[in-house]
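Internal ticket - ligand job 760, 26Q:
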Amino acid sequence: MTISEKLQAILDEAGAGTIEQAEGRALYEALLRLTAGLLDGRPRLRGEKRLYYVSAEFLIGKLLSNNLINLGIRGEVEEALRKAGRSLAEIEEYEPEPALGNGGLGRLAACYLDSAATLGLPCDGVGLCYHYGLFRQRFEELKQREYPDVWRDRPGWLRETGVRFSVPFPDFSLEAVLYELPVSGYGGGCGALRLFDAATADGSIVKDGIGFDKADIARNITLFLYPDDSDEAGRLLRVYQQYFMVSAAAQLILKELKDAGYSPESLPAHAVIQINDTHPSLIIPELIRLLMTEGMEIGDAIEVVSETCAYTNHTILAEALEKWPVDSLEKAVPHLMPIIRELDARVQAASPEIAGKIAIIDGNDLVHMARMDIHYGFSVNGVAALHTRILEETELADFYALYPEKFNNKTNGITFRRWLMQANPRLSDFITGLIGDGWKRDGNFEKLADFAEDRAVLERLLAVKAENKRELAVYLAEKAGVEVSPDSIYDIQIKRMHQYKRQQMNALWVIWKYLEIKAGRLPKRPVTVLFGAKAAPAYTLAKDTIHLILCLQKLINGDPDVSPWLKVVMVENYNVTWAEKLIPACDISEQISLASKEASGTGNMKFMLNGAVTLGTLDGANVEISELVGEENIFLFGKKSEEVIRLYATEGYRSADFYDGDPEIERLVDFVISKQLIRIGDPENLARVYKDLVCKDWFMTLLDLREYIEVKERMLDAYEDRLHWAKMALLNIAHAGFFSSDRAVAQYNEEIWHLTPQKL
Ligand code: 26Q
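stdout (structure tokens):
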């Protein structure tokens, strides 16, 4: 049977009509059934040793297109739909989007599952089956409002497995119900994303946006990804949630060990647990506890667990390094406390002279999750070369001195199946036309560099970008109701809203450009500045920055003198789908974090792969990007990480010095509370942004602002030499191969996991 015939058979069974006439929803459901059926037929990856990638986040996004690509039938399906006057894009609109992550860390986990399945590695993701993903963002009165993100109300890929475990809390226990989503590899086998829900979880307790009774643990535990932790009850709930996840995960791992006929002592030979940041760290004491209930001595249990667990650090921001008060843990997981105290006692006894610096439980009765991972895991890795170096030399120097052999770097990667083949079919075909399609498996684009002086190729590359820009303009008009000119330069910053990522610096540039245009100094070509970002619900300054950008959007787009030259667009509810639309159309990739603060970044890699040129600081993986493409193919600015670290150490940065000492900076910052903006926005929110910039500016916006403006001007000028720009874009693509998540996962496997790839 052809794909068309199979699809029609499913539609017939549902009485949904022909492919031509079926409603979009019915057609989506039919295609879902067809694709899920094909995935079911794939061999599940097995082996002597399995990886359990335990993570509180998996930002998988929609899966239909991705699964079609990995099954190798996307072309056929598209052709069948096209013949019937339908399209995959139309059908995908009906697919719910699992937004089970905040940003980089969650998306990385999703890319790694794709790569592990592609490489034939027996690997599962293990996490929580939140009822609501990351909140849905709406802009109301130019401010962010949060709403529950419902994704499980329609047919999707999730299915119940029938496997259940009981998770013990002090006065009650909760039943964990295991769900699974299939994870297809490109041409390979099939892994799984295994997500636990609580049998008692009940969405009906959600009231008034994303509010709910934080004390009703049985009903709220798996409702939300990252419940607001700005108050005590919210923080306690996070502990309950984390423990629920890891207890179920630990029971699953030990059950599978037993089912395979292996003894508890042999755990390290048959399982490796990658702890994705500290959110799953309680799996260490929980596994020890469970092994002890099987009769193992504590010392042996500690050894077995330490040989099984490996830890990845994703951040050096102090406020994100989890530390839980002993009191909270005593309340939620008192049965783990004797074990955590024993773990702490052992490390303190082993290194008494530095006990204060490496203790798991510190003098303020805070339990340091990362420290537990480092002491009782066999591997600690950072996510980009610079990040790992900063961990070793600064943040975790005491631990590096103790355990140099545990530390290693694994520079992040992205899956080219989603971020090139799926998101950018035009570029994908263009590349294949030039160098063949070996890159789909080996991620090698180096041969593209041979065309760096080939005028015809460069012109075609520009044409591909122009076509993607037109497509985005149509999408923006449809989805956001804004008109942008495809002839303008698309300058894009999409990532979580955070002060360290410095969207506020980009906003100050927008103000600068606005004032330039107002003064009659017109740019050579119009610029469209696009933003996409969610702010954590309790992060006031981040929400204020969104407000500032939305005010600028209104002011500028509504000003007939300025809007032909400058437009600002902040897309609502930025998510994986938006990223897939925006990245292929981008000219300038904004990667402007304060050096030393962005562990790696992965958006930077996606943009590079799609032929955008980076405007960035020497932070995270930008350092490696610049080494790969060469300084002539990237626009760098700003203070280096050593200098920034020194400024923090010496308290050497005062934003007021920059504000008072530079009339140009003063003018831009003052504009935040100007009459023009106050008329549009809320004075309270704008004043907070202003005040922070002048009085605090913890992430040193004003330090790099001047250089940012200068280099961005140079970049806009460079854009006018279209062939030279195309050469830069081509060389960026040519050197993007290193950032394949296949490379990253292969390195994890060779140096940490040691799984045997299955031949498929
Ligand atoms: C911690 C404590 C309390 C409340 C929340 C948190 C919390 C939640 C989420 C801490 C961190 C996160 C997420 C971090 C994250 O996404 N980090 C990003 O990871 C990417 C993948 O490695 C990197 O590329 C990014 O540089 C890094 O910011």
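Auto-summary: The chain has 34 helices and 19 strands. Residues 102-105, 108, 229, 314-315, 320, 322, 383, 412, 598-602, 620 surround 26Q (CB under 6 Å).
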